[in-house]
Amino acid sequence: MGGLGPGIGGLEILVIGLLALIVVGPKDLPLLMRKVGRAMGKARAMANEFRSSFDEMARQSELDELRKEVEALRTGKGMVPLGAEAEAAFREISSDLNQPLDAGPAMLPAPDEWPDTAPAPEPLDPAGEPATKAKAKAKAAPKPRKASAKPKAQAASVKAADGKSRPIRAKKLDL
């Protein structure tokens, strides 16, 4: 159902346009189309205004109904008594909620400090002594130096024009 409205399709619009061209003429056709467009815009604006006012009235009536319901709940009108069984069930639930809990398993006393603020125990070395004592013993005893079998790697260098050798620097690769 495309086109301007229900029942008006592409073929009907083409027929109306040809009739308007024949009746009005090509000279006055743009002026006529402009007037028709303005009239259509005004009609749409009026329809939108009517629709919005209708929606506002519907919202207002819904709000009035809600206000009446809230007022009835406040004053207690319209409340139906639940009966003796419901009252007994509510009393039982209320008494269960107000009773103290049965003593379950004994709870441990709370620690004096938070676990994350207590000092951590010292790690032990392989001999089973605290690591700080092992470090103190290691500092006291001199270590024998080992003769290294590998010679130190020489840094690559380049002789500059002034005769001084300078180390080669790696270039950054831009990817």
Structure characterization notes:
- The protein is mainly alpha-helical.
- The protein has a domain at 10-75.
- The chain has helices at residues 10-24, 29-75, 84-98, 131-140; strands at 157-159, 165-167.
Rg measurement, Å = 48 Å
Shape: flat
Q: Ends: how far apart?
A: 58 Å
Helix content: 40-55%
Search tags:
single chain; two-stranded antiparallel sheet
Give a brief outline of the structure.
With 175 residues, the chain is mainly alpha-helical.
Write the layout of secondary structure elements.
Layout: H1 10-24, H2 29-75, H3 84-98, H4 131-140, E1 157-159, E2 165-167
Antiparallel strand pairs: 1-2
